[in-house]
Design a protein that fits this description.
The complex is a heterodimer of chains A (about 270) and B (about 170).
Chain A lengths: L1 H9 L1 H18 L15 H17 L1 H24 L9 E11 L8 E3 L12 E3 L4 E8 L4 E5 L7 E5 L5 E5 L7 E8 L9 E4 L11 E11 L4 E8 L8 E7 H15 L1
Chain B lengths: L1 H20 L15 H5 L7 H19 L4 H19 L14 H29 L5 H27 L3
Helix pairs in contact in B: 1-3, 3-4, 4-5, 5-6
The chains are: A alpha+beta (about 270), B mainly alpha (about 170).
């Protein structure tokens, strides 16, 4: 016993270091991509508020440029709305609702990148909502606090998005290899499909996170794995993660109904 | 007292520069600059070693909160605080360190500072990138990242050191 005590006293510093180090690493490796503890992410009140203030200062400097981009997007949406009005397709009940948010902080050069935005639970954000930007799919909401939310972008290894080739509807999943911020990998497309460079890749709509047909990118190059006879397709992403200011989170109305009916049947 | 205030200010400035500026800039996936470890590296020579550990942990935790990487930078900050005393011993000048002299370029020269800082930077970056990727298939990519980012960090750290700390 005395020996043990002597040992502890002698190596107290080293033991403290090892214990704290172990604690940190346990925290790091037990983290779920969909963090339950919002205070432990950049969505927490303090870091969120600081990042938001700072983003306000930076944004102010790019204001005219931003205005121009928003104007263009607006015009584009008006044109599409006009085309839609003229077509005779009946408008079904609104399935998706969009929640606007501004980016207050974003990393792009990490292996696990994140985007923090200034809309949270109070604005209707929930985890596992799809997020799109001006040019296409951005990512999935991974954690939410009252005022802020953290988005897991396509450029995060845990983000997997169900996508398809717009041309022929063959689907698979999109993931990121950690190397190039502009390129993601589209896998699980069977080898007999006719894939061409430049083909558009859009969301499949299977997961209820994204509506069907949201643009993601286009085929940059592809390769057939001869042993499995599946394609590995490099997709050039439309979203420029270096320069992302505004995003829209997607609220799926059907999903809520599904959830409600699910709970209803459980209660019976 | 003034000294303590000075270090609290360094802590805040380096934390904000790290999280609000450096973490938001992207040149390439190979280039990551970490300036926050400068705080731990330049704590006064007579800082209690337990206090140094806790300060390293605290700095890392704060960076983690901004980055949503709970545990990663905390563990790395802790490691830097631990390694610091060994690095100081290895590069000890002939007549040793003096308690009231700040660990700076001005007091111990560029050669000393670069050797000391670069040793700690490489250990810190190896730790961060290995744990971040946790994938030994990508080991060459990770090592390339460590090399490029270490040089970048050295330049940024030297710059901020001269800017903030090495004044009369």
């Amino acid at each position: 016993m005395r020996n043990l005590l002597d040992f502890v006293v002698k190596y107290a510093y080293f033991i403290l270091f090892i214990v704290l180090e172990a604690l940190c690493l346990v925290l790091f490796f037990s983290a779920n991509p969909y963090q339950r503890y919002e205070f432990a992410t950049s969505a927490n009140v303090v870091t969120g508020a600081i990042a938001e203030k700072w983003a306000g200062v930076v944004q102010y400097m790019n204001l005219s440029e931003e205005n121009e981009a928003l104007k263009k997007e607006n015009a584009d949406l008006r044109n599409r709305l006009e085309a839609y009005r003229r077509s005779s397709i009946p408008v079904l009940g609104k399935k998706f609702e969009y929640i606007p948010a501004s980016v207050i902080s974003a990393t792009t050069n990490r292996e696990k990148n994140t985007i923090t935005v200034n809309a949270g639970r109070n604005a209707g954000m929930e985890t596992e909502m799809g997020v799109i930007g001006r040019d296409g799919v951005v990512g999935i909401v991974s954690s939410v606090s009252d005022k802020y939310a953290v988005i897991m972008p396509i450029i995060h290894p845990d983000a997997r998005i169900s996508v398809k080739l717009a041309e022929n509807g063959y689907f698979g999943s999109l993931s990121w290899n950690g190397r190039d911020v502009r390129v993601a990998t589209f896998s699980e497309v069977p080898g007999y499909v006719d894939v061409r460079i430049g083909d558009e890749v859009v969301t499949s709509g299977f997961s209820a996170i994204f509506p069907e047909g949201v643009p993601v990118g286009y085929v940059k190059s592809f390769e057939k794995d001869l042993s499995t006879d599946f394609y590995t397709i490099d997709v050039e992403l439309y979203t420029d993660f270096h320069n992302i200011k505004y995003v829209y989170a997607i609220l799926n109305k059907n999903k809520e109904e599904l959830k409600a009916s699910d709970e209803g049947s459980k209660n019976k | 007292m003034i000294d303590k205030l000075k270090y609290i200010l360094y802590f805040i400035v380096l934390l904000l520069v790290q999280t609000l500026i450096l973490d938001q800039i992207c040149v390439s996936v190979y280039v990551n600059a970490f300036v926050y470890i400068l705080f731990i590296m330049t704590l006064p020579i007579d800082t209690n070693k337990y206090l140094a550990l806790l300060l390293g942990l605290l700095m890392g935790l704060c960076v983690d909160l901004f980055n949503s990487t709970l545990g990663l930078h905390a563990s790395a900050g802790l490691l830097v605080a631990f390694v610091r005393s060994f690095a100081l011993d290895i590069y000890s000048p002939h007549d040793g360190y003096e308690n009231n002299k700040q660990l700076s370029v001005r007091n111990y020269g560029y050669g000393w500072f670069i050797k000391y800082a670069f040793t700690i930077i490489i250990i810190h970056h190896l730790w961060i990138f290995l744990f971040e990727s946790m994938n030994f298939a990508n080991i060459l990519f990770t090592l390339a990242k460590v090399c490029v980012s270490s040089l970048t960090s050295l330049i940024v750290i030297l710059l901020f050191h001269l800017l903030l700390m090495s004044r009369k």
